[in-house]
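re: ur question from yesterday

yeah so i grabbed the chain u mentioned. its 92 aa long if i counted rite. heres the sequnce exactly as i have it in my notes:
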Amino acid sequence: MAFGTLTPTSRNVRISTISYVVTVGVAATTLSIQDKQVSPMKLLNAVSTAAAGTSPTVINFDKPVLLTGGMDIVTAGGAGAATIHLWINGYY
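ran it thru and got these structure tokens back, copy pasting raw so excuse formatting
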């Protein structure tokens, strides 16, 4: 995916787990996951993708988190794009 916003769903969704691993790191690129409110609630806020790795970062929420109006996955950065593998567990 090029830099920008991907909207996997425009429905309210509850997220229980986010896992990601950066396999090709690029300095000055970031990953954010947020809901679609006017002032978005961010589950991940501009996480750096500079360092590549082989083990995923796993974020488990004690209770599923409601993303109102849907979910946006936002990537931003400089000249190159990182390779990010992302898994999100949730339900409607």
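noticed a couple things. DSSP finds no helices and seven strands in the chain. also Strands lie at 4-9, 13-24, 30-35, 42-48, 57-67, 71-76, 83-91.
anyway ttyl
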